Amino acid sequence: MKRVSIIGLDLAKRSFQLHGAHCDGSVAFRKKLSREKVLTFLAEQPRCVVAMEACGSAHHWGRAIRDLGHEVRLIPPVYVKPFVKRQKNDAADAEAIAEAASRPTMRFVAVKTDEQQARAMLFRTRDLLVRQRTQLINALRGHLAEHGIIAPQGPTNVKILSEAVEDLGTSPPLLVVELARVYLDQIERLSERIAELEKATAHEAKRGTMTRRLQTMPGVGPITAMAIETFAPPMEVFKRGRDFAAWLGLVPRQHSTGGKQVLGKTSKMGQRDIRRLLIVGAMAVVRAAYRKGAPEGTWLHRMLARKPRMLVGIALANKMARSIWAMLTKAEDYRVPVAAAA
Questions:
Q1: Which residues contact 276 (CB under 8 A, 6 or more apart)?
Q2: pLDDT digits (tens, 9 = 90+) for 291-319
Q3: Which site among 17, 160, 195, 291 is 20 to 30 Å from 144 CA-CA?
Q4: Which residues contact 280 (CB under 8 A, 6 or more apart)?
Q5: Bridge partner residues of 73 (DSSP)
Q6: What is the C-alpha to C-alpha distance for residues 137 and 75, in angstroms, rounded to an integer?
Q7: b or e along 197-207 (b: 16 or more beta carbons within 10 Å of the residue's beta carbon)?
Q8: Count of other CB atoms within 10 angstroms of residue 11
């Protein structure tokens, strides 16, 4: 009797579809199980590969199934789609997952630990509250602009709006004042929660050796360091720094054919949280260098002399990603580059 070599598991809330395959790819079984019966069924199976899409709850199931002794492989959903045959249903999805996971060149997602997902929740919560605060500020600015009260963008300028609302000289309608106070109260509460979460993030970033090492690089703070530790896979999976930069989406998009290289804009196809934070940090370094002047002979000094600041910022973010790969693979702190000799 042939042994099952790989099981494709299509995740859901209640109804799970499993597709078992032998080493030669032939079908071993197709089963539909309730949530409560999945682990019991897999515990009865011989050790094999269990593949799933890297979607919601996949890391939880990955840890639970790995504890049963199976090898877990998480696949990005975009890589599974080409293997779906004709109609879209749970059985076809499970079969496609098993087929995709059996490819020798397939790329997989590392299963995250409980601690990583807890930090991811901290990061996502802060990010959500920041976006909600920005939404409230922009809405308040828009409403008050209709009554002649304007202020620049950003949370630091909310005080201008607050003072204008309470100023009797501006004389907005009483209803506008009362509603503006509702906005201001919500903005203040969100700011307090965001400050608490940032304090917790900084505390978590001080605990780990990896996050402390990352913060030795200019442009990388506690939030960026936490994001890299939480969302990036082990650096050993990348052969070189450029591979990590490509995984983040900090390389040009290619549309090459016939041996002719055609490169376009930044691909933006990778991990968007880390990419965004690296670009923000790189732009902060570029702005500081633009105001104070970069050291003579450095790469940054030469680039600022002949390229737009935004382009330099993207290029610097790419260099930062490569340096991060080198720092983590070699277990070294950031080293300031030496200026080239004139």
A1: none
A2: 888 888 888 888 998 899 999 999 999 99
A3: 195
A4: none
A5: 51
A6: 39
A7: bbebbbebbee
A8: 21
d(CA 140, CA 182): 10
Which tens digit of pLDDT belongs to each residue from 78-92? Answer: 999 999 988 889 999
Query: Which residue is it, tokens 């602009």?
Result: 145
Phi-psi region of 287 (alpha: psi -120 to 50; beta: other; left: phi over 0): alpha
Mean pLDDT by 10 residues, the chain (342 residues): 88 94 91 94 94 93 95 94 90 95 92 91 94 96 91 91 83 89 96 95 88 93 93 91 92 83 79 92 92 84 90 93 94 78 44
Q: How many CB atoms lie within 10 A of CB 122?
A: 18
**What is the widest separation between alpha-carbon atoms in the chain?**
88
- pLDDT tens for 112-153 read 999 999 999 999 999 999 999 999 999 999 999 998 888 999
CB 106 within 8 A of CB 79: yes
* Cα 166 off chain centre by: 41
Q: Where are the alpha helices (DSSP H) in the chain?
A: 38-44, 58-67, 77-80, 90-101, 114-145, 158-166, 174-207, 209-214, 222-231, 241-248, 272-292, 299-306, 309-330
What is the reported pTM? 0.84
Q: What are phi and psi of 167, to 5 degrees?
A: -75, 120
Question: Alpha-carbon distance 11 to 15, whole Å?
Answer: 8
Beta strands in 12-68 (DSSP E): 15-21, 27-34, 49-53
Q: Which residues of 24-54 are buried (b: 16+ CB within 10 A; e: fewer)?
A: eeeebeebebeeeebeeebeebeebbbbbbb
Angle between the 222-231 and 174-207 helix axes, to the nearest 10 degrees? 70
Backbone angles phi and psi of 208, in degrees to 5: -95, 145
Share of the chain above pLDDT 70, in %: 98
